[in-house]
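Long-time lurker, first post. I've been practising inverse folding by hand and with some scripts of my own, and I keep getting stuck on stretches where the structure tokens seem ambiguous. Below is the full token string for one chain I'm working on. Before anyone asks, I'm not after the true native sequence, just a reasonable design that respects the backbone. If someone could post their per-position residues I'd love to compare against what I wrote down in my notebook.
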């Protein structure tokens, strides 16, 4: 029995492009911007068997990978352009079978290998795979940008121009959130604009989302680097920052070791200050874009998973800005156990029963795929709402107290307090250094509390904080 959950219009396009029949297709859980399918097409051929007769022999199906943009994005078109440019380089990438810009379609040869790093088959493969990724990242940055023909990209006058462009897009996204924008973004975007790295730096093609999840590997080797839709010309340190960001969800190992491997193989000196800046930029930009997606949900948007990742990223963004400012990462006050007396125990018991049934009865009966993934998300939401009953009141009081201390004002309503934060953050300040220290520390505490509020939703990611960039 073969599976086939590919829409007929897409199957027709694949068959027209390849002149072969689609024999099976299974949905692949991808990111927020694109849908994906593993597609097998017929490889039936006629081959001579002996001199007297022709016998039909069937080869294994040809294995392809289909991507389709969600909404009006041009991610697949951009991905295809970069893959064409890199096809003869030292950087391994999938071969493009065909693309269609009008519908955001991209069909690739499916590469052998796993994408679930760091879950290697043998422990010895972990460091070998991670080291190979750093070597390939260095190889990418060694390519002369002017030798690459990528129609939608131009080489900037200075690598930091890409940071300015990213901030411009982030500002546009922030404006779409209007008066409901998370106050942190008002502080973080202004901070990022003031801290853009200047000085001498060379330009390179950067993947911009480099790291685990965006490469395929086997037996200690990276077989292909994938997902190039946001690649651009910019500062090579941005890719090292992206690896440091992805390390939180998918560990890459000891970051100073990884950076040393990159430096040794590429000859490109490491600049920790620039890596720190770009790590903050990536975290702020990505958490802001997820926030925009949550506020204006496109079709198929996984609200549960994206809420989890935004919590991870925005918490990390605030902590990383503390690192950049050279201040100690703060901690939050332990919760008062007496706060649990406000919990509605009947509702808590009902929520726990529903969570148990979903996780232990419903999900195991479902085949692996999108439905099981979404139901698992529902179970985590129920657990999170139950957890909120037990800790919400104490965390709310901590937040009110912290805002009052930060603003030196008396405030008792959280919604009004956020409005006041937005107003104050919009006012000019003469002492930017003192202000940066104050706000960086406050927002780090704010999002550490948010992580605690969403502990069941976060799961294993709850303890995943951004690694230091150097040994201390």
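-- Answer (accepted) --
I ran through it position by position. Result:
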């Amino acid at each position: 029995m073969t599976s086939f959950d590919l829409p007929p219009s897409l199957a027709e396009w694949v068959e027209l492009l390849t002149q072969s029949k689609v024999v099976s297709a299974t949905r692949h859980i991808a990111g927020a911007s694109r849908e994906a399918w593993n597609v097998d097409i017929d490889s039936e051929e006629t081959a001579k068997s002996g001199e007297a007769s022709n016998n039909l022999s069937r080869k294994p199906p040809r294995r392809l990978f289909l991507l389709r943009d969600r909404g009006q994005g041009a991610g697949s078109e951009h991905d295809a352009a970069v893959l064409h440019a890199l096809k003869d380089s030292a950087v391994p990438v999938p071969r493009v079978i065909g693309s269609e810009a009008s519908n955001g379609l991209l069909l690739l040869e499916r590469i052998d290998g796993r994408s679930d790093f760091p879950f290697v088959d043998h422990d010895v493969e972990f460091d070998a795979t991670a080291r190979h990724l750093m070597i390939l990242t260095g190889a990418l940055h060694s390519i002369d940008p002017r030798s690459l023909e990528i129609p939608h990209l131009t080489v900037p006058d200075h690598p930091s121009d890409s940071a300015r462009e990213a901030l411009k897009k982030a500002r546009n996204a922030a404006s779409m959130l209007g008066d409901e924008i998370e106050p942190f973004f008002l502080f973080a975007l202004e901070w990022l604009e003031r801290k853009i790295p200047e000085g001498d730096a060379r330009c390179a093609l950067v993947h911009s989302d480099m790291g685990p999840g965006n490469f395929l590997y086997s037996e200690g080797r990276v077989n292909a680097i994938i997902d190039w839709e946001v690649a651009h010309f910019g500062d090579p340190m941005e890719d090292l920052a992206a690896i440091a960001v992805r390390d939180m969800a998918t560990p890459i190992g000891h970051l100073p070791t990884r950076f040393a491997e990159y430096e040794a193989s590429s000859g490109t000196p490491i600049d920790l200050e620039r890596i720190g800046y770009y790590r903050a930029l990536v975290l702020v930009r990505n958490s802001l874009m997820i926030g925009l997606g949550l506020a204006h949900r496109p079709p198929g948007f996984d609200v549960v998973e994206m809420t989890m990742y935004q919590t991870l990223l925005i918490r990390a963004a605030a902590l990383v800005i503390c690192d950049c400012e050279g201040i100690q990462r703060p901690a939050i006050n332990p919760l008062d156990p007496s706060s649990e007396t406000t919990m509605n125990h009947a509702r808590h018991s009902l929520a726990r029963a529903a969570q148990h049934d979903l996780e232990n009865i419903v999900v195991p009966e479902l085949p692996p795929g999108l439905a099981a993934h979404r139901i698992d998300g529902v179970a985590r939401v129920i657990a999170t709402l139950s957890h909120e009953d037990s800790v919400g009141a104490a965390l709310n009081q901590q937040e009110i107290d912290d805002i009052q201390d930060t603003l030196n004002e008396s405030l008792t309503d959280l919604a009004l307090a956020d409005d006041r934060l937005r107003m104050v953050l919009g006012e000019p300040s003469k002492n930017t250094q003192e202000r940066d220290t104050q706000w960086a520390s406050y927002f780090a505490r704010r999002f550490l509390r948010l992580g605690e509020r969403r502990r069941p939703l976060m799961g294993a990611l709850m303890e995943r904080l951004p690694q230091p960039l150097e040994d201390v």
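A couple of notes from the structure itself: The chain has a mean pLDDT of 89. The first strand starts at residue 22 and ends at 28. Happy to go over any region you disagree with.
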